[in-house]
Amino acid sequence: METVEREIVVGGTPDEAWRAVVDSDWLGEDASVDPRPGGEVETSERQGFVEEADAPRRLTFWWSADDEDATRVEIELEEREEGTLVRVVESRPMAMLDAYGPEVVLGVRRQGAPEMLALA
């Protein structure tokens, strides 16, 4: 699976880091995030939706640019002595499903995609 993982410790509390993620251009120019399940994620280059929001600890969303496969982004925030650890994991799980099928990727024993992947 194509996956990019990054971690950084930033100054401030998890609440401050959360606000920086959802209320600033941290995700891209003109970023807008509605931090609730089903909420919209928009930047000048990508659009998507929020899968999970657990402020100020976790935000998971799907997004894509025109003519690109969607990626799933997981952002986790952990309080540390020196600030907040921000962990970002971006992956292309749909590309894995296309390549290998749900039986291999998810361990699904029945035919068809499981309900949890019905994104439309």
Q: Which properties best describe this structure?
A:
single chain; 120 residues; alpha+beta; Alpha-D-Glucose-1,6-Bisphosphate, Chain A, domain 4; 7-stranded antiparallel beta sheet; 18% helix; globular; disordered C terminus
Notes on the protein architecture:
The protein has 3 helices and 7 strands; from the N terminus they run E-H-E-E-E-E-E-E-H-H. Strand 5 and strand 6 form a beta hairpin. The protein has a single domain, classed as START domain (Alpha-D-Glucose-1,6-Bisphosphate, Chain A, domain 4, 2-Layer Sandwich), CATH 3.30.530.20. The chain has a 7-stranded antiparallel sheet with strand order 1-7-6-5-4-3-2, with helices on one face. The relative contact order is 0.20. 18% of the residues lie in helices and 39% in strands. With 120 residues, it is of the alpha+beta class.
The amount of helix comes to 10-25%
Identify the overall geometry. Answer: globular
CATH topology: Alpha-D-Glucose-1,6-Bisphosphate, Chain A, domain 4
Order of H and E elements: EHEEEEEEHH
CATH superfamily: START domain
Distance between the termini: 22 Å
Name the beta content range: 35-45%
Overall pLDDT confidence: 82
Low-confidence sequence ranges: 102-120
Compute the number of strand runs: 7
Strand arrangement across the biggest beta sheet:
1-7-6-5-4-3-2
User: Radius of gyration, rounded?
Assistant: 16 Å
Number of helices: 3
**What's the CATH architecture?**
2-Layer Sandwich
**Largest sheet, strands/sense/barrel:** 7 strands, antiparallel
CATH class: Alpha Beta
